[in-house]
């Protein structure tokens, strides 16, 4: 059944139909389509446009269709143009003439705009739950790794010692921001387009506030042309999903490095690794690599929709049908990556001794040695130069700062005293950093307590 055709005298060419049809993917939101129709019918009856008997017939039929699709007894017909025409055809077949009144005061333009908003709203809730689960996993790991030392890097060069709790805490902050972005999008998009019609509203006395209330919206949209042609919320969502994937990709890159033979900071669980068809010794971090790779796929969806929308005049254009496949794919990709990444993270083994050994090498305590001299009255620029010379000496003699004798220290500056060894110990270097946001134990414990409060909201 087509929802149009009265002015046409020829059947649609089959290739044209196939090219035009969207049911292969928009069937994803059959539940949302039926929920929107039920709210629309309730409003029509409230306004006296439908009788209560017609309302009950239509709602009963729609509920039956939803249940039958859900339990598999009703298969969605792939030859239909879209999910809207399929549901309406089934309704008319089941209840007769009353079903033909379902579409009163409504266009497919505002119907699909509504369905997409309802679907996206539900999906945001699911993605948020996956992000919260990832944050809970990170939080658990942070609590037990406040004394697990590892080198912090800049330019992929060892810089200063931190703790694993502090390092993981950086990703905790990223994923917190991701949740807040989703919240903002959900709040901003929560206006109901139903009642906007094709582009200019309708002559029927619709109560759009009532429909919006039934569907959990904050109110109706204020411009009917914008209502049916707005895809800003999808662009915002794809941008937020791209940022989530960027964060996952950065984290995956570190997991891949840490899992390498050169680092050996971690070992991925067998259940989240794969082997080689030819090299029996291999244990590959494929999940992390695929997350990193799939990031480009989500980026592609964002750029595709931006490109689709950039030249469209008001109001609705068929180009906008292209929003669905890419958005559905991006959502599914992000949900899958979040679930798998969280599982990989929660099962990996942390080699704390390897991390600490690495933190002790590479002169990560050099800044603290310079700060020590400053504390003894040496100007910072002079202290910086002295420690630079000491580091060069250690490199040339294959030794570490903490292994030098006091006599050797004092050849570079008489300000060095025996307390230099305590000043450049790993524990001292980390734990004397007590400002909020720093890796010191006291500062980390405060942050972890705030994170606990955040997760319990």
Please tell me about this protein's structure.
This protein has 457 residues and is mainly α. Helices cover 61% and strands 4% of the residues. It is built from 19 helices and 4 strands. It has helices spanning 14-20, 23-26, 30-46, 52-71, 83-95, 108-143, 164-188, 208-214, 224-229, 232-258, 286-309, 323-347, 352-360, 366-375, 380-396, 406-412, 420-423, 426-431, 441-455; strands spanning 149-154, 157-163, 266-267, 349-350. A two-stranded antiparallel sheet has the order 1-2. A two-stranded antiparallel ribbon has the order 3-4. The two termini are 49 Å apart. The mean pLDDT is 95.
> What is the H/E string?
HHHHHHEEHHHHEHHEHHHHHHH
Parts with pLDDT < 50 across at least 5 consecutive residues:
none
Query: N-to-C terminal Cα separation, in Å?
Result: 49 Å
Measured by DSSP, the beta-strand proportion falls in under 5%
Question: What structural class results from the helix and strand content?
Answer: mainly alpha
Helix content: 55-70%
Q: What profile does the largest beta sheet have?
A: 2 strands, antiparallel
Shape estimate: elongated
Spatial strand order of the main sheet: 1-2
Number of strands: 4
The whole-angstrom Rg is: 31 Å
In DSSP terms, counting alpha (H) and pi (I) runs of 4 or more, how many helices? 19
Topology, element by element:
Blueprint: H1 14-20, H2 23-26, H3 30-46, H4 52-71, H5 83-95, H6 108-143, E1 149-154, E2 157-163, H7 164-188, H8 208-214, H9 224-229, H10 232-258, E3 266-267, H11 286-309, H12 323-347, E4 349-350, H13 352-360, H14 366-375, H15 380-396, H16 406-412, H17 420-423, H18 426-431, H19 441-455
Antiparallel strand pairs: 1-2, 3-4
Helix pairs in contact: 3-4, 3-6, 3-8, 4-5, 6-7, 6-12, 6-19, 7-10, 10-11, 10-12, 11-12, 14-15
């Amino acid at each position: 059944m087509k929802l149009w055709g009265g002015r046409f005298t020829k059947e649609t060419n089959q290739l044209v139909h196939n090219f035009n049809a969207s049911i292969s993917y928009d069937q994803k939101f059959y539940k949302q389509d039926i929920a929107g129709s039920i709210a629309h019918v309730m409003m029509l009856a409230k306004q006296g446009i439908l009788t209560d008997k017609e309302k009950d017939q239509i709602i009963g039929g729609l509920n039956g269709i939803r249940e039958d699709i859900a339990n598999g007894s009703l298969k969605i017909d792939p030859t239909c143009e879209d999910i809207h025409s399929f549901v309406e055809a089934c309704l008319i077949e089941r209840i007769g003439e009353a079903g033909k009144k379902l579409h009163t005061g409504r266009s497919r333009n505002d119907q699909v705009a509504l369905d997409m908003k309802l679907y996206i709203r539900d999906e945001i809730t699911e993605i948020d739950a996956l992000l919260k689960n990832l944050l809970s996993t990170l939080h658990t790991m942070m609590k037990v790794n406040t004394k697990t030392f590892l080198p912090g890097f800049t330019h992929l060069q060892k810089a200063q010692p931190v703790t694993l709790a502090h390092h993981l805490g950086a990703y905790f902050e990223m994923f917190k921001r991701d949740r807040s972005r989703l919240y903002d999008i959900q709040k901003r998009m929560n206006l109901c387009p139903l009642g906007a019609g094709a582009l200019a509203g309708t002559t029927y006395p619709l109560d759009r506030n009532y429909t919006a209330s039934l569907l959990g919206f904050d109110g109706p949209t204020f411009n009917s042309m914008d209502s049916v042609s707005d895809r800003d919320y999808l662009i915002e969502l794809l941008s937020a999903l791209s940022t989530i994937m960027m964060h996952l990709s950065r984290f995956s890159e570190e997991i891949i490095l840490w899992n390498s033979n050169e680092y050996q900071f971690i070992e991925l669980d067998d259940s989240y690794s794969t082997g080689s068809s030819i090299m029996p010794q291999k244990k590959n971090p494929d999940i992390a690599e695929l997350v990193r790779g799939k990031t480009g796929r989500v980026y592609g969806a964002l750029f595709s929709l931006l490109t689709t929308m950039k030249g469209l005049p008001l109001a609705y254009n068929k180009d906008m049908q292209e929003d669905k496949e890419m958005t559905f794919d991006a959502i599914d990709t992000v949900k899958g990556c979040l679930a798998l990444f969280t599982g990989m993270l929660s099962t990996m083994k942390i080699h704390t001794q390897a991390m600490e050994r690495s933190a002790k090498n590479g002169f990560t305590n050099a800044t603290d040695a310079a700060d020590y001299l400053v504390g003894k009255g040496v100007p910072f620029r002079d202290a910086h130069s002295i420690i630079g010379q000491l580091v060069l000496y250690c490199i040339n003699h294959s030794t570490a700062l903490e292994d030098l004798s006091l006599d050797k220290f004092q050849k570079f500056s008489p300000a060095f005293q025996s307390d230099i060894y305590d000043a450049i110990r790993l524990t001292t270097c980390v734990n004397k950093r007590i400002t909020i946001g720093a890796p010191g134990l006291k500062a980390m414990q405060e942050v972890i307590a705030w994170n606990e409060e955040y997760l319990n909201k």
